[in-house]
Amino acid sequence: MKIKSKLMTATICLASIASSSIADNIKVGFNVPLTGFAAADGTSALNGAELAVEQINTAGGINGNMMELVVYDDQASPKEAVPIAQKLIESDNVVAAVSGSYSGATRAAAGIFQESGVPYISAYAIHPDITRAGDYVFRTSFVGEVQGRAGAKLAGEMLGLKKAVVVTLQNDFGKSLVAGFKEVSANYGIEIVGEYEYSIKDRQFGPIVSKIRADNPDVIYATGYFFTAGPLVSQLRAAGINTTIIGQEGYDSQKFIDIAGPAAEGTIITTSLDRDSTAVETQDFITAFEAKSGNKTDMVAASAHTAIKVLAAALQSSGDADKAALRDAIAGTQLTASTGEISFNGLGEVQKSVQVQVVKDGQWHHHSVIHDAALLAPPTE
Amino acid sequence: MAYEITLITTMAISILFALSLNFITGFCGQISLGHAAFMGVGAYTSAVMLKAGFPFLFTIPFAGTFAGLLGILVGFASLRVRHDFLAITTMGVVFLFVGLVRQQEFLGGEIGISGIRGSPFGRIGFMYICLGLAAVFAMFSLAVKRSWMGYVFASIADNEDISRVLGIDVSKYKLIAFVVGTSTAGIAGALYTQHFRFVGPDSFGFVESVTVLAMVIVGGIGSVWGVAVAAAFLSVMPLLFQFVNDFKILVYGGLLFCMMRWAPDGLAGIVSRWIKRLRSTS
Amino acid sequence: MLYLELFFQGIVQGSIYALIALGLTLVYGLLRILHVAHAALFTLGGYLGVIITNATGSFLLATAVAMIVVGFVGIAVYKLAYEPLLSKPPFISLIASIALFIASEEIFRIIFGPYGLSYTNPPMQGYFELFGGFFLKYGEALVIALSVVMLVILGWFAAATRLGVSWRATVTDPDMARAFGINTQNVRYMNFFIGSALAAAAGVFVAMLNNLVEPSMGSVASYKALAIIVLGGLGSIRGTLIAAMAIGIIESFGTIYIGHLLDRDALAFAFLIVVLMIRPQGLLGAK
Fold this sequence. Notes:
Radius of gyration of chain C: 19 Å
Strand order of the largest sheet of chain C: 1-2
Shape of chain A: elongated
Oligomer: heterotrimer
Number of helices of chain A: 13
Distance between the termini of chain C: 40 Å
Order of helices and strands of chain A: HEHEHEHEHEHEHEHEHEHEHHHEEEE
Number of strands of chain A: 14
Structural class of chain C: mainly alpha
Structural class of chain A: alpha/beta
Radius of gyration of chain A: 22 Å
Helix content of chain A: 40-55%
Distance between the termini of chain A: 69 Å
Strand content of chain C: under 5%
Number of strands of chain C: 2
Helix content of chain C: over 70%
Number of helices of chain C: 11
């Protein structure tokens, strides 16, 4: 009898340990482009997110449980993102999710997460409608228009450059940045003497370079990603055009400097990552990321890292409670992350200062910070 | 359950889309590399109308009509150019479509149209609508195939010049095929809009046109059930193949290539050869 | 000056298009196949150009090696993909070609990574400034010069050498050529070798102008080159060259002045469709 009952107790103990260790992991969904045209950014974002998860788990996890990232490749396509969102919610039972993907996919997925009451954080996608999907959707990076406005202040007021040429990447990222720039450019005395557009597939900017030379501006406000901005800046400098170039967080990668080479010197961008920051979180992130991935950090990695950290903090404070409580915890975030002070307004948009970085000696460095709360106010509805 | 429902709905929409191309390509022998443009016209029409408040079912005939109108236009253009030129002309159509759409603010520009409300029939109801429409068109295709019109199409597909000599008004039938195929693609577009609740300029481009053509060819050009099966499988393949993650697209390209290399008459061809072999042994 | 510069930019882009489209036209002329996978050879040329230049420091050596290696890869593509499908309807080889191209982009990404490669010491930086106000970069001038050289050599080869003449004969009438004892198999190999080598050169030039090679750099070339050979009149070499320049120049002016209405690709295709409606056989195609 005694042996039997001991055996039973032992079995029950083992069973409960086994089941509790399975139930231990907190699953967080992560949709990211790992193949297709956006694979470069997706790979970085995944590295940033994985680093965050590693750091959290090494520090003891969330209330003793380990965080687990459930990753799916959405090819930056809305068509793929929708079923992925559903799979995460139903098959994988994630408690929340983060988007490491571009706007189209994020917007499509956001609707699904909102409907199912699962909190969703967009790491770096800038489409304004993403947060309008509902109160379960948040964004840890700037809306395009906000960053564009910052660029206008930087050019017109802080640098005193008044004659501008605007080069727009023909997608939601480029267009919303330029919309923000043009919205307030007159307030800073900026005259736009030329406006040109290019497609995300373009790498050859000969005609635009020639035209810009004819326009003879004081400053070039060019939107793009590192793989378009790198060639553009390189070609501008190779043609002898030494005008100041202002970019945005799409440039924010060491790859931009690799491609443009010495031509990258002096390029200024508005972004969220300050590599010279003395803040512990930022420096820790930069060091850890370079150690883990072997690459230098970039904006998408930092943003994904921030989004996971925000989620983790909210999970920590909301405890084992339900998703509605988690949502409230996220909404009440006050966190210092690698990309700055994170807190959300009613729409789920983040309000933070804009970092300005410049390329010096082949590296990104601190240039200045823009702290204008009125100018940088994100949308509230 | 919602995940499986989504998959089935996606498959149904792809089947309808692929069958609509099969009508043009399979029945009438005209290779179109721009079929996604017609789905796009239907999708955007439906999206704009849905945002304006019209009920979903009401948008379907409009989606089909506008797509069909573009189809007539392209159909006339196709009459002027020779076979090989047609493929590239249709390719041009889809690039023009995307290029124009992304610059129109009333169509959402680069950002597209989002926040489209869900189907009033619920997820399951909508799935049945999609399956129903796909089934109806499949039966329609089969009926046409067996009818005298089907014979005319087959003759044109086989040899256009001889058909003309035989007194067939080749132009008229080509146009008919184009209009039927493109308006149905437009209807598939309306379903797409309601299903994904987001349309953008990147959703209906050259890649999508190639993908649907691949579905038709892998299924076996002209074979209604072959194309349906191929469409169902290929449309959800990326999701089924998530476990290969990094190599998904490579697997897709490889599979497609192997099909062309070793089974160019598609699934229909494989099955019919198999059946023949079974029959000959029995 | 601006208009002259834009014109020359169009010529630069047109030269690159010409080098790529020529290979496509050669294959079509011989086999009636739309060789979409050609763009993969362009990409391969670009990657080899960067890798060899970074390893050896010599841009010209890299160009030569890239052209030769890719030439042979082109032959391999013919043997692997097209030879077995010659008896099938042309859309089969079209889809096979597209499948090959899709797979190739992924292979490049898997082997070389998604970020792309750049030169450690970008060659040909700097520019000419001619007759007060006209600027042309060294790289751009080199592209035009080398393209002209290659095309002249090709033209001489086709007209004046035995190999070239037998090649033209095979294109015009394969059966007759075979009857005269010409080895059509070898002619096909040569066809693919030359076309692929030219595409590789284009890849190297593009890599030099942009200082970036990426897995997807061939995607535009894959369909743009098709548009160009159709515009020129399928199978006509002279037509292809003219079409390539025309598209280059139209894109150059169009992206500046009507770029807000249509993007680059839409411009090129709009032009193509307009021409085809007026002349359905293309600019220099046979009626």
